[in-house]
Specification:
By secondary structure, the chain is an alpha+beta fold. The protein is built from 13 helices and five strands. This is Helix-turn-helix transcriptional regulator.
Length: about 280
């Protein structure tokens, strides 16, 4: 059974569109460490024109602005901000996930994560709010306090909160470091105030030392950093994989991610199949 809720994605903390397109474009170019000449060559323009746009002496055409945004890897939400700042209408819709127009997408994601059972899988938005989850995820959340399970569920909060999964994660320092580094990369890309606030919150959670003897007696040669988690006296191991949509034309779709937890050893595979067989 899946849990599906409306997406409540927050806007980025970039300056308002009334700041003007030039400063916004320059900020993205500097963030990506691309020179005006390099950007001009990529976008079939000139360094002089890029300079004029950034200083407000020239208004970029809509298609050029979109090409510049593409070559700077500007997130879809922020491309709309650039367009509005330049006096154009937003190009990309932001359709609520519970809108009838999203029926095919919702049902497709639900079938995907249900088909992944008995292994855990979930769908999250740009700030890690859980939009859908399969029975493998709900199994891992057994016994968590109601305060953490109240909507909107947040995957980072559930994982790293001292009353959440954190005490059960046997390699918490390593897994926590991986998750925080992942969030740092996303903050650098998206400039999201809600994501930054979430990062500051979970980063401040106290971290208990790993209990002696919690690690497996014999090291296992994992092919990627696993999450080692205790469940009913057993150590389960998972490798995380995250998928996003190619070339999204909607802000909501651009900010969706499907995370699947692949069992990293035969014992975990056997145990999960025994639970849901």
């Amino acid at each position: 059974m899946t849990l599906l809720v409306s997406s409540t994605q927050g806007s980025a903390d970039a300056p308002a569109a009334d700041r003007g397109v030039g400063p916004l474009l320059r900020a993205w170019r500097e963030r990506r460490r691309v020179s005006q000449l390099e950007l001009a060559l990529r976008a079939d323009s000139s360094a002089r024109h890029i300079s004029f746009v950034e200083t407000g002496r020239s208004r970029p055409g809509e298609e050029l602005l979109l090409r510049l945004a593409e070559h700077l890897d500007v997130p879809v939400r922020e491309r709309n901000t650039l367009l509005v700042a330049a006096g154009y209408a937003p190009r990309y819709r932001e359709t609520p996930l519970d809108d009838p127009a999203m029926d095919a997408l919702r049902s497709g994601m639900e079938r995907l994560i249900q088909g992944y059972e008995p292994y855990p899988a979930l769908v999250v938005d740009a700030t890690y709010n859980v939009l859908a989850a399969n029975r493998g995820i709900t199994m891992l959340m057994d016994g968590l306090p109601e305060s953490l399970l109240a909507p909107p569920l947040n995957a980072m909060r559930l994982t790293l909160h001292p009353e959440g999964l954190a005490p059960r994660i046997l390699n918490l320092p390593e897994w926590r470091g991986h998750l925080l580094a992942q969030m740092e990369r996303q903050i650098a890309l998206h400039r999201s105030a809600p994501l930054r606030a979430l990062y500051d919150e979970v980063c401040a959670y106290p971290v208990a030392e790993t209990a002696p003897g919690a690690e497996p007696a014999e090291p296992v040669p994992y092919f990627a950093l696993p999450m080692l988690i205790e469940h009913e006296g057993r150590t389960l191991s998972f490798i995380s994989s995250i998928s996003t949509f190619n070339t999204p034309m909607d802000v909501t779709v651009a900010e969706l991610a499907i995370e699947t937890l692949l069992p990293a050893d035969p014992a975990t595979v056997k145990y999960l199949h025994s639970l849901m067989g």
